[in-house]
TIGR03089 family protein (Nocardia suismassiliense), 240 residues
Amino acid sequence: MREFDKALTLTEKVLDPILARDPAGPRVTYYDDATGARIELSGLTLANWAAKTANLIRDEFGLSPGARIAVLLPAHWQTAAVLLGCWWAGTEVVLRPDEHAELALVTPDRLDDADGVAEVAALSLDAMGAPVRDLPIGVTDFATSVRVHGDQFLPGGAGAALDGMPVAEVFAEAKKSAMRQGFSEGDRVLSSTPWDTPAELIDGYLAVLAAGASLVQVVNPDPALRDRRIETERVTAQRA
């Protein structure tokens, strides 16, 4: 049986101050300039989806704090909630194919990267939550399964948080990254950088939350829309 820390999970560390201060304000605003999609999550909505994910991980997949989950997903509003759900459940996130993971969360085009993993769930990343069609036997459709789970979660502790790093280390790195990038409470941070490595994820997502800021994440960015977006979203800080 794995040892785990009964102290706060990473999700509690980054979300609790936000929920206490401004639960209704925008926290993640997602754009895909290739499709025109725009999705915005408040702190409370982000927490509700994270709780559903954590309940799915614990109750449907039977994972306990200390389990390892391979999150093979792009920077996306659903990924933002999924990551917080993983950490709320006390599990360790790895961002690469890992046959020793107990669960892999993947897009359909990356199912082959989950070979050897005991449990696999696929996300369509559809803006309306559409399921993935024609999944192989044994692969769970995330969108269908997560909806039935509760939007409250009682954590039971945490193991490592991100690629072997404990919660305290990841949170400290996120705080340092926020300071280095000049993020502060109330900032609106515009970013189009990926979350493919632990460093990218810390700098591009966790640092924003740890600062008490909010994220405007743009994929497939159209340079012609940048200036107007900065104005309409009241951007106060920018990444690449």
